[in-house]
Amino acid sequence: MKDAAPSTPQAVRLEDYTPWSHVVDRVQLTFRLDPRATRVISRLSLEPNPAGPQGRRMFLHGEGLTLIRASIDGRAVTPDLTPDGLYCDVPEGPFTWECEVEIAPEGNTALEGLYMSNGMYCTQCEAEGFRKITYYPDRPDVMAPFDVRVESAMPVLLSNGNPGATGTLADGTPWVEWHDPWPKPSYLFALVAGDLRAHSDRFTTASDRDVALNIWVRPGDEDRCAYAMDALKRSMAWDEQVYGREYDLDVFNIVAVDDFNMGAMENKGLNIFNSKYVLASPQTATDRDYELIEGIIAHEYFHNWTGNRITCRDWFQLCLKEGLTVFRDQQFSGDQRSVPVKRIEDVLQLRARQFREDNGPLAHPVRPSSYIEINNFYTATVYEKGAEVIGMLKLLVGDAQYAEALALYFDRHDGDAATIEDWLAVFEDVTKRDLRQFSRWYTQAGTPRLSVEETFDAGTYTLRFRQRTPPTPGQAEKLPQVIPIAVGLLAPDGSEVVPTTVLEMTQEEQSFSFDGLAARPVPSLLRGFSAPVILDRASDAAERAFLLAHDTDAFNRWEAGRSLAKEVLLRMVGDNAPPSADYLAALDQVLADDTLDPAFRALVLQLPSEDDIAQSLHDNGTTPDPTAIHIARDALAHAQAEALAPKLPALFDAMTRPGPYTPDAEAAGCRALRHIALSLLTRLDGGDRAAQEFDRADNMTEELGALGLLIRAGRGTDPVARFAERWGHDRLVMDKWFQLQVNMAPPEQAVTRAETLAQRPDFDWKNPNKFRALIGGLAANAAGFHDPSGAGYRFVGEWLSRLDKVNPQTTARMTTVFETWPRYDADRQDMIRETLTRIANTPDLSRDTAEMVSRILG
Ligand code: 0A1
Ligand code: ZN
């Protein structure tokens, strides 16, 4: 009874939501694990749902399953199988459904459902993977307690919840039972079986619950779990202190797997992680890795309340859990490290990924209203813009009312599958505000442009703002949004005359005045990046340099330096202007200011990315030339190096800290600034110092940093080979090696290098991390990827067509490297369209990739 081929994809629409016909009171699952023939026996206690459609027929999702038997109340039934599931006639009242299916985890290369990674069984069920495990109402609003029994000879057998009985079958096969008392949707189900080792610890909650913590890894990786464990305990304590949320089971398990489509997954009590976001040692992980591990461990842990205890009614509400959980993990990381530095990093990410998405063919609202494949909507817009929307809400209502609203949300909706309307109603009830206009942030796509004009007259300073959101696919007209604009005013001597004030803009055009000023002030607008908008403001370089030197808002100090650099670069690309001396002088001051956090100084010195410059040129109506951008950016970096040369050696030495590596933010900040100094010095000495550094580095941050500079300087051949000799045994370190070589390569060599690397036997392209490292690494080398010959597009296109056969989800996500095509010249546009059309015409293309390619082509 094998099912037929999948049906033609149809769009799912928010407006069509209807509850399921039945309620699941209990789920009992038994797994007899076998790589080629796993048996899954499922028993569901069901009853009619008074709130759902009434009738005597039920539908269960199911994909790629072989149905062995099915029964209702113990009597065999023959359901009608469809490509997406089954229909079955059911009794009028409560009944028990039982079925047995067979699946083959070994052949599951899509890494969705039950699959195998290095001989270990694991699952990924969000969003719709559970239907590849058994027949089930696989939708987030169906919540039930799960009892799971796993039968297997594997030494470690895990599932959600608390451990239960264990035993041995007559044939000697061991079994274990797990009981999860918290009703959950199927997307939070997880099972792991393998030869694993635990790094264990304990945590006592505020209510004195003793929780066993385990991080499960492959043998040999046990000594790389300490940082993740430390981050987990800090996350648990932080959620108690800041949000009053405690953990609610006796055990919390984390498992690291090498083959994983995303970063990690918040399955109840059994989080599954991409191993790169768990495993760390000073020798193998960079500062950035440590930071990401901390943030992702926190993110998944925080989902226990925002996502698991309160889940989503349907997948259109994805931002309900993701936006809020990202917001929470950003708050956590800020508290653990530095609030302004974290904010700058988050805004850099937001602009690089979300603004790019929001200003191209894939733009969609934070809460989309239709989709073909939900896996394509785990986007920067849903996650990062979703978090920004919460940040704005908090700013508008204030910290105290935000805390009250969150307490009410947890109280009112615990155990619910909720909606964005529920979320906003909580804020309306607490604050008595009308949030109807604010809710447009959830339904309108596109990044609002905010322009401003100012006047000063008889002591009154007036800011006149205008907002406009360009059309996005399917949304031609945009209405004004509520924009919180945090503003401060500085006097000409640099003192602050008006401290941060939040202006609430609601109209298309709106003025705000400040009286009683002795002189025309310098405005510091959108402090802390108080709204995800693009601010257009004509201001001169002198004013930006003034803000870079004097603003009391650290974010805006950085922003002033950033916009200065951007402006200089745009003039260098467009008019062949020389690097601006004012800009270099301002940098010189920042560099020498020891009162500033080294991490902050490193961020000020870092130039805008080539992609960022391309987007700005496009926004200004100029067609970007990736080669010219690369040359200009290089030239500005050279000018920085020459201008700052006298200070660089001393800075490098000052940032060299004695003693062994520690991953804390302070030490990492010094290394970041030290690396910038080394990078600039490399432009002057051709790499001599970087070569010394490569030889002496005792940690991956410095070793990899130096290697990248040597590659960029054209001195990479020998160190690249030595690095591979040293680290060939380590899969995660080798991912960095693949990535760096194409990413740092001179643009004209990038594609050939990628082609050569792709031939290597250790380029295991079916592993998503490896694929992303090499193919994604090339796409991140903007001038190399956009090589005028089109070789970069063809290379990436061919690999995407190939990967689609084994892993549609990762393929579909990577098609976004082409989303910026409308920016470029006619030749490049033609070549990209040709590549995308070729992908679209690949026989048997997945629904995932087909949807993405057709949206990108528009
Ligand atoms: N919910 C996870 C991310 C995630 C989403 C989808 C996945 O498979 C399609 C896997 C993981 C998170 O936010 O961390
Ligand atoms: Zn998440």
From TrEMBL:
Annotated Gene3D superfamilies: 2.60.40.1840, 3.30.2010.30, Neutral Protease Domain 2, Peptidase M1, alanyl aminopeptidase, C-terminal domain, tricorn interacting facor f3 domain
UniProt key word Protease: yes
Cofactor(s), names only, from the UniProt record: Zn(2+)
Record EC number: 3.4.11.2
UniProt-listed InterPro entries: Aminopeptidase_N-like_N, Aminopeptidase_N-like_N_sf, PepN_Ig-like_sf, Peptidase_M1, Peptidase_M1_dom, Peptidase_M1_pepN, Peptidase_M1_pepN_C, Peptidase_M1_pepN_C_sf
Lineage summary: Bacteria, Pseudomonadati, Pseudomonadota, Alphaproteobacteria, Rhodobacterales
Residue span, Peptidase M1 alanyl aminopeptidase C-terminal domain: 542-857
Protein name in UniProt: Aminopeptidase N
